[in-house]
Amino acid sequence: MIQNITNLANQKGMRLYIILFLFGIKAACFAQAPEANLLATWSDPSLPGSVYHDNVYNEIWGFAVNGHEYAVIGSTFGTHIIDVTDPSAIFERKRFQGKASGAQIVHRDYHDYKGYLYAVCDEGNSSLQIIDISGLPDTVSMVYDDNQVISTSHNIFIDTANARLYSFATFSPIPQVTRGVAIFDINNPLNPVHLKSYREFGSIQPSHMHDGYVRDNVAFLNCETKGMAVVDFEDVNNPEILGILSHNNYLQSGYNHSGWPSDDCKFYFMADENWGRAIKTVDLRQIPDLEVPTYFDTESGNANAIPHNQLVACNYLYVSYYHEGLQVYDISNPVFPERVLYYDTSEEPEIQNYRGAWGVFPYLPSGNILVSDMQNGLFVLEGLGDNCQPNANLESCKDQTSALKDYFKENSLTVFPNPSNGSFEIIVPHSGSEGSLEIKNLLGQVIYTQKNLENRLNSNRISINLSSKLAFGTYVVQYTSGTKIFSQLIEIGQ
Predict the structure, then answer these.
(1) How far is CA 455 from CA 81, 415, 423, in A?
(2) Which of 86, 135, 166, 460 shows its CA 20 to 30 Å from the CA of 152?
(3) Cβ contact 128:153 at 8 Å
(4) What is the DSSP letter of 276?
(5) 363 pLDDT higher than 70
(6) Residue 321 burial (CB < 10 Å; 0-12/13-18/19+)?
(7) DSSP bridge partners of 6
């Protein structure tokens, strides 16, 4: 169903909403969606399913090189590169075994950059693998397989314009890498260099960062049960929080799993990986608040369906659904999405488990749509036939966030790195008047103070070194300027 959410009021910082059930729109949006035309499938029945979800397959990616189109699908074995140039005769061009493989593997992830395919895995004693795909269809080879930068990662995303690889929920021998977002310079594609890692952004303090999308250094971060955050990493040493949508500030929240912005970066479509939850449209134009004007689903009434991954191509949102397969929505009007295509890839029992369509990839030049099913493998589906050129009309996300950035400079307190060893920096708001700084323990006892701090536009950064004075634990950083009080927790550890 589509639920249009109208803001009524603010009460103690929380928004109150009324839900309008738009029955006329419901019929118009969902009744006429046709089933997609299946062009081809691929699977390998010899591969084992995982011990967790019985899924043989996981992520899907795609690319085109030298006049050929390829699907990339992950499995418990590793990475499979499937030539889908001729949908009537698709075949596996090459497979590469993961450093970790077998029934303990649930999830791999992929992205390509400058003729290289980057592959990671979320389980086992794994690694970052880089495959040279530039010579296809004649040659393809593994050119990097190492766990000294990334051992496991849940998801990766490459900001190609800035040659940065973002890795989420990462394990690495590099001590600074956290389970948040780890940022790597890949100007030399075969020599990833760790730049910085962050896990907490203001009130968003997740145990790990699940996924993210990055454009123009602006990252949309999916922060599991804590909600989502929009962060500008242009200055990688001083990231700027542009927006926060806490889990308790939108309806049907749960495990904030994934999302993708519209081409004009005015809206963001996200999903929580919980049974029966709707897809959310986030209005990025609302400054300083991020609001959710629309909630929508497949209109099937299936309480066990989960929107798993979403991608936007031109005016269409492509969603892979557990138990509901591929769903495509026309988002020409992002507040009122219209379902225009579907294809169910699975006949698994519709119970509360994780089965069916895992991922979708709609960016091939042919317009054909790639879908991965956890149990059934690769599906190649005919696209909408509108000659859309995906990613051809992407607009800068910075244009949408400049005013929001100014707001947070006026109204937020940033402490980094966090956690810290006792040496950290504090960016205080541009309040235009003198302020005072205190660091307290959780009993309210003042451990450190600075008063009469002059707050000029270009001198709002304060360096603190209390590594010899602060014991391990949690502290409150509090900045007071006039009648305004700003606070932030900081964790002190090794």
Answers:
(1) 56, 16, 21
(2) 135
(3) yes
(4) T
(5) yes
(6) buried
(7) 18
| Euclidean distance between CA atoms 151 and 107, whole angstroms | 13
At residue 69, the pLDDT reads 98
Which residue in 135, 68, 73 sits closest to 110, CA to CA?
73
> Lowest-confidence range among 75-79, 166-170, 468-472?
468-472
Burial of 21 (0-12, 13-18, 19+ CB in 10 A): exposed
Check: CB of residue 294 under 8 Å from CB of residue 281: yes
Distance of CA 477 to the CA centre of its chain: 29
Amino acid code (one letter) for 2 = I
In the three-class reduction of DSSP (H, G, I as helix; E, B as strand; rest coil), residue 181 is classed as strand
Enter the tokens of residue 26: 């419901």
The backbone torsions φ and ψ at residue 208, rounded to the nearest 5 degrees and listed phi first, read -155, 165
The mean pLDDT of the chain is: 87
How do the residues of the chain divide into helix, strand and coil, expressed in percent and rounded to 5?
A: 5, 50, 45
pLDDT of residue 410: 60
Output phi, psi for 431, to 5 deg: -85, -15
Q: Are 166 and 211 in contact (CB under 8 A)?
A: no
Rg of the chain over all Cα atoms, to the nearest angstrom: 23
* Residue 16, pLDDT above cutoff 70: no
- The label of the residue with tokens 């949102």 reads 317
